[in-house]
Model the fold of this input.
Amino acid sequence: MEFRQRLVVGALWIAVAAVMVSTLEPTVPSSANAAARLFVVIVALFLAGVYLLDPKNVISQGPFSGDG
Done:
């Protein structure tokens, strides 16, 4: 994946996290629904970090990168 493509995908995951954060209440999650929303925010930020930082070339040289 090229850097520009990774940048777009990372920005989309950040946007997903931002939308989900806007649905959370500012208190400690007290229900399963709120905990699931918080989990989605954490996973979206993790995926954004993977796409933006590409640690150990996981995205660039992975099995589904299309390089051969």
